[in-house]
Amino acid sequence: MIDKTSIIYPNVIMGKNVEVQPYVILGMPTANDNDKLIIGDNSIIRSHTVIYAGCEIGNNFNCGHGVRIRENVKIGNNSQIGTNSQLEGYITIGNNAKIHTNVHIGQKSEIGNNVFIAPGVVLTNVLHPLCPEAKKCLKGATIKDGVKIGANSTVNPGIIINENVLVGSGSVVAHDIEKNNVVIGNPAKVVKSIYDLKCPFGIIERPYFEYMEND
Amino acid sequence: MIDKTSIIYPNVIMGKNVEVQPYVILGMPTANDNDKLIIGDNSIIRSHTVIYAGCEIGNNFNCGHGVRIRENVKIGNNSQIGTNSQLEGYITIGNNAKIHTNVHIGQKSEIGNNVFIAPGVVLTNVLHPLCPEAKKCLKGATIKDGVKIGANSTVNPGIIINENVLVGSGSVVAHDIEKNNVVIGNPAKVVKSIYDLKCPFGIIERPYFEYMEND
Amino acid sequence: MIDKTSIIYPNVIMGKNVEVQPYVILGMPTANDNDKLIIGDNSIIRSHTVIYAGCEIGNNFNCGHGVRIRENVKIGNNSQIGTNSQLEGYITIGNNAKIHTNVHIGQKSEIGNNVFIAPGVVLTNVLHPLCPEAKKCLKGATIKDGVKIGANSTVNPGIIINENVLVGSGSVVAHDIEKNNVVIGNPAKVVKSIYDLKCPFGIIERPYFEYMEND
Question: Which superfamily does C96-215 belong to?
Answer without folding.
Answer: Hexapeptide repeat proteins (2.160.10.10)
